[in-house]
Amino acid sequence: MNTVILRTVAPFLTSLMIIFSIFVLLRGHNEPGGGFIGGLIAASSVAIYGIANGVAPVRRALYFHPIVIAAAGVLLATLSGVMSLFGNVPFLTGLWWFPETTGIPITLSTPLFFDIGVWLTVVGAISAIALALEEKEYD
Amino acid sequence: MATGPADKALVAQSMLNEAPALSDWLVVTPVIIPFVFAAIIVMQRQRVDRHGPIAIAGFVLLVLCNIGLVNAVRSDGVIVMAMSNWIPPFGISFTVDIVSALFALVASVIGLLTAIFADGDLDMRSRRYGFFAFLLLLVAGVSGAFLTGDVFNLYVWFEVLLIASFGLIVYGGGREQLDGAVRYAILNLLATTFFLIATGLLYGMTGTLNFADIARKVPELTAGAPTAAVASLFILAFAMKAAAFPLNFWLPASYHTPPAVVGALFAGLLTKVGVYALFRITSLVFPTPPAIIDTVVMAVAVATMVIGVLGALAQNDIRRVMGFLVVSGIGSMLLGIALGTTEALMGAIIYAVHSMIVMTALYLAVDLIQKATARFRLTELGGLYAVAPLLSTLFLVLAFAVSGLPPFSGLWPKIVLLRASLAVDAHWAAFAILLTGILTSITMGRVWALTFWRPRSEGAPEIDTAMLQDRRLMAPLIALVALTVGIGLFPAPLFELAGLGAAGLTDPSEYIRAVFDLAAHVGVAEQ
User: Fold this and answer.
1) Are the beta carbons of B35 and A74 closer than 8 angstroms?
2) A85 touches chain B (CB under 8 A)
């Protein structure tokens, strides 16, 4: 699908989708959303960019190989569970911090890091599949 | 997140307030360590040369943690850790008794030795596709299945190990291999589906998934509950996984197709996960199944033992001989489960440990034979004794061990099982054990005579012993044989552990109490 319209729109669409996916990820703990669905949105944006401009620019833009991103996600999710060792509570128990900067409370927690790990894993795994399929089609 | 006072009260009712002891963390380390190291390996995907050493380091750590776990369970009894601090039975609690800890330890030792072997064996190209990451994930799945105290979580760990095993079994991607992989995948997916259906029905009957809670609720079920149907579904699912007759044909048809080190790992670990699940289900969920089920399991066990070894005797492909011997061993463990006495279960536990070690070793030895001679048909092999005396001796020890001859590890479980079956007047079971032993001796004698003793036939290619000088290939095999000899000569520690484990299976009150003792500490943790 090498049309001028798609090629023109793709960068904007991709950036919008990635921003939206991060929004969905962060809103996920108490409301609909989360790492899995956010990761799917981000992976779709990667796939769209790949369809519009070819796979090579996407791989350059991602810098890391998608599978490496997925592995980093697994590592982050596992380690966020291990953090509870330092809170003296069982594995995977959520720990919460509420640091305040310039009057705005920010909620940080180990479930958030777990969710980011899920996000990275989904982004990495689905992008790896999507890019491999697109490469087959165009090269 | 708790904000209002009402939320706080809710949290106080649903979470535990006791901080876990540091040693309780040993319960989850067998799952955490493989995941972390597998992730590190994948992140180093360009540095293929580092994969092996990282995996071996991870396994060494894992073995040390599991030794600690076995010690902790032996001295303190059943250890429970409630994931995320949710009060049992609502959260998932890892519940570890002696059987769990012992199996996890042996599994990690097998993982370590196969990792060392694979590091010497595999070429860089096949490492690139993440062999060591899959290996670690497989061990994570196996350990999780051994340690969890929740039936649905057990299902999830089965899936983890299945996914990892799919990755390993298609390694190399040859035509024969994909054929074996498809059989393996379809049978295992079917078994997993039965498992899932049975879990759903069990949840419908008891309203809980926690093993300890199920064990409390099952005796209170009304007479109309479909206990027998659910029990049969579970047994069917796990018997398929364990490759029991008549559902055993996928195993000899698929285990020899991937690289031998994968076959060794599968033969050592995967069927035993099915056996372990049967231990748990028969101990906690259906301690008194209808008599017909006991009879069926007994018949299946005897048939698996005898038909497995007859299959081995009939094979010409040395790798398939080993596949049928794995099946035959499963029959002995099932027999222990079917007899159901403490002594019989003890025999089954010892047999499982012995089988994990010996079957892995046999697959590795067969791989070395194949590497040296480039042959795997008994009719074409021969003359190895003259050029590879060490390998011949190791193989002979393994042949004795798998046949149950003294002074190696195979002797003890057979004696215990024999005594257990005579104690309950199951004479034909005792006869089957002896018959299987004799037939296994004949099978292994035939393999040894044809492969090692017989002079090399005219026109056969030169035997290349260069591979047999490689320490990374020989050391794991020697270590496994040393374990067999060690267990054979000094069986007391294993007997003690297996005895405690079997007692815990026949009387699971400590297992149940440990979970609900934890549940008594309700309240918000002081952070």
Assistant:
1) yes
2) yes
Task: Evaluate the CA torsion angle A15, A17, A19, A25 in order and state its sign.
Answer: negative
Give the number of A-B residue pairs with CB atoms closer than 8 Å.
Answer: 69
* Cβ(B127)–Cβ(B52) below 8 Å: yes
Q: Please report the pLDDT score of residue B527 as a whole number.
A: 38
- Give the DSSP letter of residue B27: G
Number of domains in chain B: 1
Query: Are the Cβ atoms of A93 and B84 closer than 8 angstroms?
Result: yes
What is residue B522's DSSP assignment?
A: B
CA of B185 to nearest chain A CA: how many angstroms apart?
A: 21
Residue in B16, B25, B527 closest to A85 by CB: B25
Cα torsion B304, B307, B310, B311: sign: negative
Residue B445, domain extent: 290-502
**Distance from C-alpha of B415 to C-alpha of A80, rounded to nearest angstrom:** 48
Contact B515, B5 (CB under 8 A): no
Cβ contacts of A70 on chain B, cutoff 8 Å: 42
Query: Could you tell me the pLDDT band of residue B525, with boundaries at 50, 70 and 90?
Result: very low
In angstroms, the separation between the Cα of residue A82 and the nearest Cα of chain B is 8
A109 vs B19: CB contact, 8 Å cut-off? no
Residues B416 and B346: beta-carbon distance below 8 Å: yes
d(CA B103, CA B504): 14
Let me know if residue B37 belongs to a domain.
Answer: no
- B81 contacts in chain A (CB < 8 Å): 90-91
For B243-387, strand residue ranges (E) read none
Q: Examine residue B206 and state whether it is found in any structural domain, yes or no.
A: no
* A82-120 tens-digit pLDDT: 888 888 888 888 888 888 777 777 788 888 999 999 999
- With CB atoms and an 8 Å threshold, state whether A75 touches B84: no
Q: Has residue B472 been placed in a domain?
A: yes
Residue B459 confidence (pLDDT): 66
ipTM score assigned to the predicted complex: 0.90
B16 touches chain A (CB under 8 A): yes
CA distances from B52 to B44, B135, B330 (A): 11, 11, 31
Can you give the residue range of the structural domain that contains A101? 4-138
Residue with tokens 């064990």: B215
Does any CB of chain A come closer than 8 Å to the CB of residue B521? no
Report yes or no on B86 lying in a domain. no
Number of domains in chain A: 1
